């Protein structure tokens, strides 16, 4: 999976920052600075490096919105420990995605979301927009699950955590936007086939486990020491933090190895649209890692300077972590290794 990024990322990011300021998505200047510091155009420009400028802008704006919503309503604030209240808000948010005529001015983040999805309707086909809406619903359902665990003080076991993280990580809508960004609608028989669903889920989980690693220091410093792959492995597998780091990396690498094997087989008989999508999954895995290792969201807190020089090159391992260090494959993901998928 070679690195790639859209050639006009800086210009599109400038347009995005103007849009965010005008949208009133951010309540304060500090919030505006924090959200724009996610560099979400840089993020999605790695997923869709060949996209039309306007399509990349529209899809990246949802990523900015997703970070704003996650920060204000999921990870922090009064709803972050109230699954009942968050579920009500999630329903209102989802209705705003699905109904062009929906109106909800009680939540400041809903009108900007409706504008973004309105642009999706202009740029994409009804099928593409509907697929995004369903993926958006899946994400919100996962966040309800996650907040429910937080409210109960529960550290789920590994199988439950992986099932929850596949939804709550936001990968479903992020990868669903590849069709919109690339203007390539995948035939339903291909996109909904078990092998392609498995590949999509594997890409989501690899990125989610990478994000657990990227955000570990930030969450620890903010006192968010609840659910992540490390606390799960430490609690239920009785590992030290150092052992959990190795075990989580081995699990991530095992999934990525299976992704590469299956993607090569599926690509051989895929339509052009599906090949574009599979390429996007690979770009997303690589791009998410590159972005996450450099973005201020994970490298700094508030006004703390970035500890890494973003101009330096990243170094990648030549081989996977020893698979013997990985925890056993759990029921939630075991079907990815089904021989019938190929």
Automatic annotation (TrEMBL):
The entry's keywords: Lyase, Magnesium, Metal-binding
Pfam families reported in the protein's UniProt record: Terpene_syn_C_2
Q: What domain of life?
A: Bacteria
Lyase found in the keyword field: yes
Q: What's the cofactor?
A: Mg(2+)
Q: Which family does it belong to?
A: Belongs to the terpene synthase family.
What is the name of this protein?
Terpene synthase
């Amino acid at each position: 999976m070679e690195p790639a990024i859209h050639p006009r990322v800086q210009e599109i990011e400038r347009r995005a920052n103007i849009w965010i300021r005008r949208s009133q998505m951010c309540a304060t200047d500090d919030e505006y600075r924090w959200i724009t510091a996610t560099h979400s155009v840089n993020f999605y420009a790695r997923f869709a490096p060949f996209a039309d400028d306007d399509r990349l802008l529209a899809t990246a704006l949802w990523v900015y919105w997703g970070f704003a919503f996650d920060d204000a309503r999921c990870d922090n604030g009064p709803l972050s420990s109230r699954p009942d209240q968050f579920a009500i808000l999630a329903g209102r948010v989802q209705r705003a995605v699905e109904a062009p005529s929906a109106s909800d001015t009680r939540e400041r983040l809903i009108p900007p979301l409706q504008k973004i999805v309105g642009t999706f309707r202009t740029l994409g086909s009804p099928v593409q927009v509907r697929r995004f809406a369903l993926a958006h619903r899946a994400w919100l359902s996962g966040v309800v699950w996650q907040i429910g665990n937080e409210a109960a003080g529960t550290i789920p076991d590994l199988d439950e955590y992986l099932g929850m993280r596949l939804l709550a990580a936001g990968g479903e809508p992020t990868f669903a936007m590849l069709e919109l960004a690339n203007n390539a609608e995948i035939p339903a028989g291909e996109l909904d086939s078990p092998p392609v669903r498995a590949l999509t889920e594997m890409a989501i989980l690899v990125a989610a486990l990478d994000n657990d690693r990227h955000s570990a220091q930030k969450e620890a410093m903010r006192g968010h020491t609840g659910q992540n792959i490390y606390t799960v492995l430490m609690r239920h597998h009785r590992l030290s933090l150092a052992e959990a780091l190795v075990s989580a990396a081995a699990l991530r690498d095992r999934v990525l190895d299976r992704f590469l094997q299956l993607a090569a087989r599926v690509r051989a008989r895929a339509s052009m649209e599906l090949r574009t999508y599979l390429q996007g999954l690979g770009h997303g895995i690589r791009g998410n890692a590159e972005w996450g290792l450099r973005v201020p969201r994970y490298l700094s807190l508030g006004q703390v300077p970035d500890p890494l020089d973003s101009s330096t090159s990243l170094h990648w391992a030549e081989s996977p972590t020893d698979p013997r260090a990985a925890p056993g494959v759990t029921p939630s993901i075991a079907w990815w290794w089904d021989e019938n998928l190929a």
